[in-house]
Amino acid sequence: MRSIGVATVMIVAAVVIVAALAGCTSGGELTAPTATTAPTTSPIESTAPTTPPSTSPSASSAASTRPSSAAPRTVQQILTAMPEGERVGQLFMVGAASTGTDQAATTAITRYHVGSVILMGQGPTSIARTADAAAGLQRHAGPIKLFVATDQEGGEVQRLHGDGFSSIPSALRQGAESPASLRNDAKRWAAQLRAAGVNLDLAPVADTVPSASFAPSNPPIGALDREFGFDPGTVAGHATAFAQGLADAGVDATLKHFPGLGRVTGNTDTTAGVTDRTTTRHDEYLAPFAAAVQGGAPFVMMSTAYYSRIDPGRPAAFSPTIVTGMLRGDLHFRGVVISDDVGSAAQVAAFAPGARAVDFIAAGGDMVLTVDSSLIGRMATAVLARARSDTGFHALVDAAALRVLTAKKARGLLSP
User: Fold this and answer.
1) Which of 4-13, 76-85, 297-306 has the lowest mean pLDDT?
2) Could you tell me what percent of the chain has a pLDDT over 90?
3) Residue 72 lies in a domain
4) Going by C-beta distance under 8 Å and a sequence separation of 6 or more, which residues neighbour residue 71?
5) Is the four-CA dihedral 331, 263, 236, 17 of positive or negative sign?
6) Cα–chain-centroid distance for residue 3?
7) Which residues share a beta bridge with 258?
8) Would you place residue 224 in the very low, low, confident or very high pLDDT band (cuts 50, 70, 90)?
9) 3-state secondary structure of 120
10) Residue 124: what pLDDT?
């Protein structure tokens, strides 16, 4: 791999971050409340009631689904008409099978109003079979359709493969292309996703691994060739190109894993206590995130690692300093903030399921990802209970739901 001098990297990173901080936007300015509330970081089970969020339609809910010849409602009007349980449901994404019928995911959608799913890709499939599975899930969603996501990065991380799906090279190989060429390739891969009913890709990885020699010691990224290169400038250009190529074909991109997993030596999926002891609040390795946010990326995924030089007491996904202060504040991101998996990940296993969801929303997050759909009842119930007892947290729920609905409107997922 080409080596770039430290001075060059710092200049590239500084230019990108300065440009981003000067006014990067994604998803448009929102009018939702901006109240904050301290997170609950205790790993003790939530004392929220065990009854699920209410599914009883109210008069306003009925009005929200009734066809009308009037002018289309605004996103704020749609949010205002939604019962609390439905608002909370929009803040969750659960795992679902990419073929056949997934009863657990269907229950999450119909009982808890879950607004998004991730197709897990349990084996070889086809575009047609995946499209049938996605359509089956969408039929249960009502007038507000689902974000149907998957992990389609390339290389070791490509959930959907088989008839009609290209074999996508690893990000490290993609990094050898020009950004313009990668954008065209990403558009082609995204067109396959669209044909399969997928409208959200949990890609690209915007993490920077510091060197080829360090990569084998970096289990989540470098060991799997998930990085576009070994300097922030290369990663910034290629992550932005990949995200824009997805958008060209009508699929939303997700930058991950803010503020970066390229310098850790443990995998948060399989290991607890994973800590980055290098990254700082204004680190040069944030440049790829800043560049792609400025380029219009609509989703950013939060890491669950600890960052000892920023907020040593909380995983990044539960940290108001990192989610609200850095991503929303420093980078001016206005789109949807999604968590890395907080259902099955060993990194957050010590936190009760309900606390994981509450802490993420309290930090400023919008969409809780749990691959394990069996946890949705405890998570949604805890968020709903906290919203009913804490006006500041209720405002955060409304703000998060508004951002999710705004993203859905941009993708044509809201009925008039």
Assistant:
1) 4-13
2) 80
3) no
4) none
5) positive
6) 31
7) 302
8) very high
9) coil
10) 87
Query: Letter for the amino acid at 211?
Result: S
Tell me 373's DSSP state: G
Residue 127 lies in a domain: yes
How far apart (Å, rounded) are the C-alpha atoms in residues 152 and 387? 34
Whole-Å CA distances, 240 to 155, 236, 281, 304: 19, 6, 21, 23
Q: Give the pair of three-digit tokens for residue 36.
A: 């904050």
> What are the structure tokens assigned to 13, written together?
């990173």
Do the beta carbons of residue 259 and residue 316 sit within 8 Å? yes
Asked whether residue 14 is domain-assigned, the answer is no
pLDDT above 50 for 218? yes
CB 339 within 8 A of CB 304: yes
* Amino acid residing at 114: V
Interatomic CA distance for residues 327 and 162, integer angstroms: 36
Judge contact between 194 and 408, C-beta under 8 A: no
Q: Is residue 395 part of a domain?
A: yes
Q: Which pLDDT does position 69 carry in this prediction?
A: 53
Q: What is the pLDDT of residue 121?
A: 80
Measure the CA–CA gap between 368 and 374, rounded to whole angstroms. 14
CA separation for the pair 50, 55 (Å, rounded): 14
Q: Which amino acid is at 11?
A: I
Q: Rounded to the nearest 10 degrees, how much is the dihedral formed by the CA atoms of 101, 103, 105, 111?
A: 130
The single residue listed with the structure tokens 């190109």 is 241
139 burial (CB, 10 Å; 0-12 / 13-18 / 19+) is exposed
The Cα 316–Cα 117 span in angstroms is: 23
Domain hosting 282: range is 89-410
Whether this model's pTM surpasses 0.90: no
- Of the CA atoms within 13 Å of residue 148, those in its CB half-sphere come to 32
**How many distinct structural domains can be found in the chain?**
1
CATH code of residue 385: 3.20.20.300
Spatial CA neighbour of 110 closest among 129, 130, 132, 136: 136
